[in-house]
Fold this sequence. Notes:
The protein is mainly α and 183 residues long.
Amino acid sequence: MNADAESSSIPFDSPVRRRLPQLLRRAWYGLNQAFRRRIAHTGLTPDQFTVMRILLECDPKGITQRELTRLMSSDPNTIASLLERMETSGWVERNPHEKDRRAHRIQLKTRGKRKYAEARRVAIALQTGVLGALPELKREEFLLHLKIVADACREASETLARQEKTTAPESKNNRQKTKAPGK
């Protein structure tokens, strides 16, 4: 019996089976820590580097905090705090959005671009080294599969969030109906 046939007969929760959450966490944590240590001298964190990369790759007029939150697969409070520190460091600026008074466009300042270029060299060397663990002909296929898994994870999360939004008012109404009289 080949390895694929053997593993398909093993339950997902079996202790002998490779587990997606654990492997994704180990990979992310290891990469994040290695990168953090290698760019410590720049004063950047891996998340700040990611913000800079996204800002450079997106609309030259900048993107909104909501767009950045989605692109980083993060939450609004984390991104707000991150941007505040980066703005204080002089790496990014927020300018009023031309159509939405409540939103701002975030742009990378010249100082941020220089800082990004310094850390980018380290990022490329680390990524090249890590992907070097795979045969050269398998690297792009691995990244494609990882993107598919990441997209499926995001979709699962967004589906649940949509379901929670549509059922939240109902459950709130039900709680109010079941309260004891006079409370």
